[in-house]
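seq/struct pair 1
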Amino acid sequence: MSDIFHAGLRDAVAEARGASGVPAPRPRLPARRLATPPVHRPPVPASELKVAKRTVLTLWLPLTPLWVLLAPFALLLTPLLYLAPEKDRVPPFRTITTLGAVLLTMSGTKVDVDTPDALVRIRIF
């Protein structure tokens, strides 16, 4: 049994080496590149520089007038809150005043959205 295995192994090795019996060449790894020193270029004149134009948008959002405008709609929609199931029901007028309180406590919030093309600033007062 071992003779058959050795013969098969010899044949496989000879086939891998080729007919000449010389071992197959090892694959070469690419040579490591050394870090090159930085290239010093003369400065570009200011007239040739392209300056990216950036849009700056500032929005002032007053919440008190917004609350005054939205309050009548909230009062008109309170009967719909009575359609909620009894176990999940919250007093409708408490819901309206809570939403108003949340809007009014956001006063003084500043939101800045900064992208490469634009800067958007939202001031809530």
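seq/struct pair 2
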Amino acid sequence: MRRTKAFVLVHSAYELGYTPRMRVMGIDCGTEFTGFGIAEQSDRDHLHYVVAGVITLSKKDPMPRRLAHIFATLRAVIDEHKPHIIAIEEVFYSVNPKSALKLGQVRGVAMLASAYCGLPMAEYSPLAIKSSVVGYGHAEKHQVQHMVMRLLRLEEVPASPDAADALAIAICHLHTSQTLARQAAGNR
């Protein structure tokens, strides 16, 4: 197994689910707002916006109910838009252990939705996502939103930063898997 900054636990572009026309669902996990976004790469390497949104969770609801809502919504989006692969952000280390644990639960539900629907999954570090989309690993949120808008040729910045982050995760996977496929083709 190979481990790089861009992705983990992946052997090849094939395992990343690369196809000449690929649809990727990015999920930006959060305990109050979980963003999702689907982008597609055409066979001519053009990126296309498919859908994006936010699952809003009530702090009043117990955590099991919030997690069930995330799972049901992600499954519905997957069923409707049929992505080929799911991409999420790797765990980052938080100062607050309780917050990190809750975020881990949301990530687990995203992973479960991916596995339940029979889809492969890839994980990317925040640095890799920002580098792939903006070209700078320490980019600000507004820079990521602006580049998502430009790369997907949207008329305006996505309304939700969580949806924009999810689209950025999807774009990162598209860029990474395409690069790996080109490298693999060059090594033959």
